Each structure stands twice: as structure tokens, then as C-alpha cells.
Amino acid sequence: MENNTYSPSLKPIDMLEKEIGYIFKNKEYIQTALTHSSFSNENKHKDKKAVDNERLEFLGDSVLSIITSEYLFSLNSSFNEGDLTKTRAAVVCENSLYEIAGKISLGDYILLGRGEVLTHGRGRKSIVADAFEALLAALYLDGGMETVKKFLLPFIVEATEQTMKTGNGDYKSTLQRIVQQTPEEILEYKQISESGPPHDRRFTFQVYLNSNLLGEGSGRSKRAAEQEAAKEALKLLGEDV
Q1: pTM confidence score
Q2: Residue 146 neighbours by CB under 8 Å, 6+ apart
Q3: Is residue 200 flagged as an active site residue?
């Protein structure tokens, strides 16, 4: 029998600490990192400590960027600025962060409001990816940069290797090169929807080849949505992505 009882999180924080191999000295950092704005808004009148993770997400984004940039810079001296930028963008994109967060089941620990729980917010890429960035900030504030590196680098190395295999994750360029082999082919991207609040917009695009639908994708920017649509198109064409 399905359990419909509402629970803001599915697992206790100490299980996550075991998962990431770090025990927080200041538990407020990790508590805040795991608090989504939906939970905070529902509980502010009950608990003054119900601060959401948006500020930590801001800091975590920078921590993620510097660690990834430093690793890529040291990896290959032949990479120019464009190569480094493209690779970093692919490694730290929402989809990549969502996949990494899934390896520690991060969604199970996030405190969500009732509405988000009922609409399967634990599986929403934006919520999980943002919480992962907030977790990095919490690790940085509590344990310093080396603590974050110890946890994060193995994931970054793996994501970078995968990105290299797929041409820096630039699926649009890969699809374009394939299509251009036949000059008369026409490739077109069409936006089919836009939703969500201003701070968390979601775009959905479809890609067509000679008016035939090849793929559809969604993302927090138009570019990200087009990339996802191109990725699905490549899969349909039998490409290894």
C-alpha cells in the first residue's frame, strides 16, 4: 500500500554525512543547504531558522566553478580559452550536477514544502542541482576548500571524461556537422513552451530535420533546452551520446 503521508525529507542528515564522508561541525550549514524555498516559505511563521538554500547556492556555484576550472586548466595545456569554457560549461551544467547529486541520493534529504513533495520535486533537476551547489557551499564554509575538493573532484574527473567523449557536450554542433554532410537538409529548432517563475524559468524546444521531429528537450535557458533537444536527436540517429 502506497504511503501518502507528507514528509519534508525522506532521510536524516547524518546518513548524508556518511555518504559524503564528512561530519559537519556547524549543522546549520548543511541544514540550510538542504532547505528548499518551498519549505522555508511554509514554515517561516513556525521556525525562524527555516532559511532557504538560495544564498548558499550562489556561493556554491562559484566554489564549483573554481575547482572545475583549476582541474581543467591543469589537465591539458593545449586547451585554449574556448576549449576550457565549453568543457567547464558542460561539466557544471544542470544535467551533470543532477546526475552527480543522484549518486549520493541528494533528493532524499532535501526539505520540501508539501506542494513540491506532491508534484515530485525530489526528481526535479533544478531543485536537486541547486541543492548540490548549496551543499558545496556548506562544505566550503564548514571545512574549507580542500574539504570540497576531496568530495567533489572524483565526480568532476568522471564528468570531464564523459564530456570529452561527447565533444564537450556541444550536441548542437555535433548534430549540425552530421546534417551538413547533406547540403539540402534543413535543421530547425522551435520553442514550444516556457514556464516557471522568473528566477526559475523552464524552456522546452523541439528540433526538426526537414519538418520531421527528431528530438525534444527542456532546460533553464533556451540554449540548454536546445542542447537537450539536439542530444535526443543524436540518439535517434544512432549516435553514441
Answers
A1: 0.70
A2: none
A3: no
pLDDT bin (cut points 50, 70, 90) of residue 138 is very high
Neighbouring CB atoms inside 10 A of 42's CB total 19
How far is residue 126's CA from residue 154's CA, in Å, rounded to a whole number? Answer: 22
Residue by residue, DSSP assigns 106-161 as GGGG-B--HHHHHTTGGG-HHHHHHHHHHHHHHHHHHH-HHHHHHHHHHHHHHHHH
User: φ and ψ at 235, to 5 degrees?
Assistant: -60, -40
pLDDT tens for residues 169-195?
678 878 888 888 887 889 999 999 999
* Residue 37, phi then psi, degrees to nearest 5: -60, -30
**Is the Cβ–Cβ distance between 121 and 86 less than 8 Å?**
no
Q: Cα separation of 92 and 193, whole Å? A: 24
Answer whether 153's CB lies under 8 Å from 71's CB. yes
Catalytic residue among 61, 70, 108, 216: 61
Residues in the chain: 241
Parallel, antiparallel, or unpaired: how do β-strands 212-219 and 187-195 relate? Answer: unpaired
Query: CB within 8 A of 10, min separation 6: which ones?
Result: 108, 109, 122
158 classed as catalytic: no
Integer Cα distance of 183 and 177 in angstroms: 11
Catalytic residue among 42, 57, 99, 133: 133
Helical ranges in the chain per DSSP H: 13-20, 27-33, 37-43, 54-75, 81-91, 94-102, 114-118, 125-143, 145-165, 171-179, 222-236
Nearest by Cα to 125 from 203, 207, 241? 203
